[in-house]
# Entry
Amino acid sequence: MKIKRFIGNAIKNLTLGDNVENINGISFYNSGIENITISSSNPNYIVKDGVIYSKDGTVLITPVNRTITSFQIPSGVKEIADYAFHIFSKLESVSIPNTVEKIGASFNYCNNLISIEIPSSVTSISSTCFSSSPNLKEIIVHNKDLKGSPWGCVIGDKAVIWQ
# Structure
């Protein structure tokens, strides 16, 4: 089963069963869902501390609480999935650990995100990672071999600071 999108504020608690195969951050945009439980026998996903991950915990799918202002990605996460923080309009800061290697189209429409630091472990960023995040003024990058800047950043390469 593929989860497309929940719309409206009627559902506050959601339980997903064994057969859910495809979830992304857009699935829960504008939904009002506050709590998600995923069957422990689901082969694809887990929920830990209010965040949906791949079953092995290496891919961050999306936090459930869409009103967060800051988020610390746990060590061990290797990939930030497409749409992980899609339209997290209140998000101001994200801490990315040195275990992350790939960042998808993850930070679109993050209106309050002003700065983000990309660790040297990251070897791939989606070309649309920061699209429509109008206040993003600083992308601090610790891997000078990383290609594709500015990754959709509205103000372009002048936001990228190579370190």
About this structure: The mean pLDDT is 92. The radius of gyration is 16 Å. Residues 62 and 85 are 6 Å apart (CA to CA).
